[in-house]
Amino acid sequence: MTEFLWSEADSLAYVTASARLLRLNLDEAQARRVAAHLSRTAHMAAALASVPLAGHDEPAEIYCPAPHCPQPESQP
Amino acid sequence: MTNLHTLDAPAIRAGIAQGHFSALQVTEHFIARIQTCDARFNAFTDFYFDRARQEAQAIDGMVARGESLPPLAGVPYTVKNLFDVQGHITRAGAKITLADAPASRDAYLVARMRQAGAVLLGGVNMDEFAYGFTTENTHYGPARNPHDVTRISGGSSGGSGAAVAAHMSALSLGSDTNGSIRVPSSLCGIWGLKPTFGRLSRQGSYPFVHSIDHLGPFANSVTGLALSYDALQGLDALDVAQHARAVEPVTAALGQGVTGLRIGWLGGYFAQYATEPAHEALLAARQALGAQQEVQWPQAAMARAAAFVITASEGAQLHLTDLQNRAHEMEPLSVDRFLAGALQPAAWYVNAQRFRRQYRQQVQDLFKQWDVLLAPATPVCATPIGTEWIELGGQTFPCRAAIGLMTQPVSFAGCPVAVAPMWPASGHGLPMGVQIIAAPWREDLALRAAAVLAQSGMARIREVV
Fold first, then answer.
1. Is B137 exposed, middle or buried (CB count within 10 Å of its CB: 0-12, 13-18, 19+)?
2. The complex's ipTM?
3. Contact between B323 and A24 using a beta-carbon 8 Å cutoff
4. SS3 label, residue B424
5. Per-residue confidence (pLDDT) for residue A75, from 0 to 100
6. Which residue of B has its CA nearest to A25?
7. Cα separation values, B329 from B143, B334, B335, B340, Å
8. Contact B335, A29 (CB under 8 A)
């Protein structure tokens, strides 16, 4: 896995451009704060991207923790 | 009569059934306590006292007619203010929701509580739109910890935690996406249950993260917790997220003990970030339950990362219009996180959901070998209100996010978790919860272990004057 390099300037540039796309009005101070949050998440996302996933690891199924099997009646 | 507020749900119901006091007397007692105490704790945002009196009088009418009483007859409870309550605006911790129309009917779980005879006292404080672990709500003020009012009550269901811990209600309903029932339970020293994802209907509750949101109860006793959970169960055709196919009551099995159960405790990630009170509480629970060995939960750090990414994306998308037009009216402590979430690349979100599928299988495999697993519910005891950063395992974390380090990986797998309130000496009077985790759909096992901890005397509620 290559080291994930993402600078404060990268983050701010991304926030500024993508905020315009989504019509989010950020002043400079807020853009910097948002960029700081996004940088932390970027490192988490980068770590997560290093987990090998197979083709069948796919998100089509509505999330369910496990098939539900009603429990047998408890014995007194 | 002076200590009615310290009674648990079965004791209140029994007292009413046996004629020791009426439901209306109980209700008036709790109303008086709220009016005396809540200024210290700021748990309540809404008071439903007229409704409470009507519900109590309905129970007293049943007593007068000699009818059999429902399971929560006359038991006072509160709801996190994201539950719809007929005739009232659903705040969801926000100010911008105050222009919304009042709810036309009760949320499904509120209706279930009414059918069970419970008495609704009010709506309680929370983090705005449930995005937080501290209930430091700028609009409505912080919910204060009843064991030290300079500290947080946890979140996002902090008002529920404070209301039950301060004996202003015997039960409460909350929501838990990444820990919002378990964190306040831990920090306020009360019992809490996050059921299996898809167990209880979410109809009529304000959503946060559709693919991870859970609802569940808080209580001042483990029996009250089980009774309320049983009352909340029901198959709701109008809830598209409900996966349960049967109602499976647990209260009758509560006393079966843990003999024969395979019980372990979580090491690795969970030990790394635990402070001394968390280690001490876990050790006490391990010993009381005869836990057999340390277990490694699969990919906990990655699961937390994936839950973090999904939460930010889904939560932000839900509020995108407000972020575009009214961001300045939103909670200043969370609005920047919402904005950052709105800007996350789709690739991050989809990767996190794909990981989740793989992770689910690994967690299910773990429960082929174990029935119950134990872990601290929070890395630390309640922190002072306003804390920005904390040190855990030699790393510095933003406090408001890191409080959920222990809970996020578990809810991301959808497992049911009961939280037992422990009182480690190193907490210096502050509680620390232990998560009792079971396989999906096995709330009964988590609650049986919780009942053993209660019987041991280690897990209990402490009185707040």
1. buried
2. 0.90
3. yes
4. coil
5. 42
6. B324
7. 20, 11, 9, 17
8. no
Task: Tell me the residue type at B439.
Answer: A
**Mutate: best of A10, A16, A28, A38, partner B, most B CBs <10 A:** A38
Nearest to B120 by CA among B84, B76, B80: B76
SS3 B95: coil
| Cβ-based contacts under 8 A for chains A and B | 133
pLDDT tens digits, one per residue of B342-365: 999 999 999 999 999 999 999 999
A18 interfaces chain B, CB cutoff of 8 Å = yes
Which positions of B are catalytic?
Answer: 80, 156, 180
Residue of B nearest to A21 (CA): B343
Q: How far apart are the first and last CA of chain B?
A: 15
Residue A67: the pLDDT is 83
Of B297, B306, B417, the residue nearest B364 (C-alpha): B297
Mutate: best of A53, A57, A75, partner B, most B CBs <10 A: A57
User: What's the mean pLDDT in A6-11?
Assistant: 87
* pLDDT, average across residues B120-131: 98
Is residue B140 predicted with pLDDT exceeding 90?
yes
Q: Looking up tokens 């169960």, which residue turns up? A: B233
Amino acid, single-letter form, for residue B251: T
pTM to 2 decimal places: 0.96
**Could you identify the residue written with the tokens 């430091």?**
B136
Of B304, B308, B354, the CB nearest to A58: B354
Question: For residue A10, which residues of chain B lie inside 8 Å, CB to CB?
Answer: none
- Whether A64 shows a pLDDT value over 90: the answer reads no
